[in-house]
Please model this.
Amino acid sequence: MKMICGKHTLDLSSPIVMGVLNTTPDSFSDGGSYYQGGRLDLSLVLRRAEQMLGEGAAIIDVGGESTRPGASPVSEQEELDRVMPVVEAICVNLDVVVSVDTSTPVVMREAAASGAGLINDVRALERDGALEAAALTGLPVCLMHMQGQPGTMQSAPVYEQVVAEIASYLAGRIEACEAQGIGRGRLIVDPGFGFGKTDAHNLALLRDLSQLRSLDIPILVGLSRKSMIGRLLGREVSERLPGSLALAMLAAQRGAKILRVHDVAETADVLRLQQIVGE
Model:
């Protein structure tokens, strides 16, 4: 299938790579790496975006709010200050779909006006005004499942049937979007690995990920460098590439169409080899 993302079109007939570009100083993986003297350095950000594009990223996901477990919220203005210069710079200089990782209505509107092609919301448009703002942009939206909020989501997550409950929640959000005029052809779903889920929940979800295909919506998966890899394998963040690649392959085999990753070139190689073998 193809999805219109502003002036770009995404081909989702086979899995594609979304490169992560966090502009937060406290991101769990690359926080602060684009800052010089306490200020965001756009030249560093643009260089990394260009590198990811060259490595095979079809989408670059720009986020200005850390949503790692225990993260503190940021103000609208702070998020705008982190995100908008980056969105504008990439849209002007590079031919790639820019996704904005936000739950904030004003950021959605401003990013869309500056050329962003996709909204990626960890709160599935549940923040006040987000559903209406997303609909007005005309852009596709990724709806993610999260139990609780980033600050407390890992305290004590509980499910009776994790996959069924996530599928039910996402089905409800799809219905809400359709009621607001956001058609199914503009929707992506993300089960939210690590967002209010234990390692056992994450493993069960990955094992039965193909069940979410019943929603008939493209699936996005973000497992790259996640803390579950560290706990399961005893690896620090810098040592999680092999685990990330294995999980990316498993997710793609189970129906994921978009892999949100930090290591673009390596993941693109994995997906290409999967396609070659499949051919």
Remarks:
- The two ends are 18 Å apart (CA to CA).
- The first helix runs from residue 42 to 55.
- Residues 149 and 196 are 8 Å apart (CA to CA).
